[in-house]
Write a structure and sequence with these properties.
about 55% helix; about 0% strand; elongated; single chain; mainly alpha; 2 strands; two-stranded antiparallel ribbon
């Protein structure tokens, strides 16, 4: 969060400069020294400030986010950490969060399992051997039950999802085989 404070202030200040000028037109006050100080801080960290200050925060955010991203990448030391990072940063990796939580189709996970367990890598289960012979780790990395062909409930969830998609297609008038 602290890396977003300066960009948020600069974007806010830049987008209200004209309004500030109108409000303070009759005032005998000096330029905003805080803004100049913060612009100089941003400039020393990320490069030159444009003559016309951008009003959109992404302009101010990108250099800091890129630096934070490089720091995170350099701190990944184990193959498991690197694999988790690559999986989380790949395109469409969060699409599963958009699935409708329909309990009758097995598409509803507890909030704790989704937000805490999977995102933070906390223990999701007791370490054990799967039916297929693979070792299942307590932290769920990799989340074996999502990929195992012999995991209990997988065929039922697969057929329920197929049925859900088929019903949606039929209701839209699209033939389904």
């Amino acid at each position: 969060m602290s890396s977003l404070v300066l960009p948020a202030f600069l974007a806010s200040a830049a987008s209200t400069l004209f309004l500030q000028g109108d409000i303070l037109a009759g005032c005998t006050c000096s330029d905003d020294s805080s803004l100049q100080s913060y612009l100089s801080d941003w400039s020393s960290a990320f490069g030159d400030v444009p003559d016309v200050l951008p009003t959109k925060q992404p302009f101010w955010d990108r250099p800091g986010i890129s630096a934070d991203l490089a720091q995170v990448k350099s701190s990944l030391s184990t193959p498991s950490q690197q694999a988790s990072y690559l999986a989380a940063s790949s395109p469409h990796s969060g699409d599963w969060l958009q699935a409708l939580p329909i309990s009758s189709y097995g598409l509803r996970l507890a909030d704790e399992a989704v937000r805490v367990g999977l995102r933070l890598g906390l223990p999701l289960c007791v370490p054990h051997s799967c039916h297929c012979g693979s070792q299942v780790y307590a932290h769920g990395l990799p989340v074996h039950s999502f990929v195992c062909k012999k995991a209990p409930g997988r065929p039922a969830r697969h057929h329920a999802l197929n049925e859900l998609v088929a019903r949606a297609m039929i209701s839209a008038g699209i033939p389904v085989t």
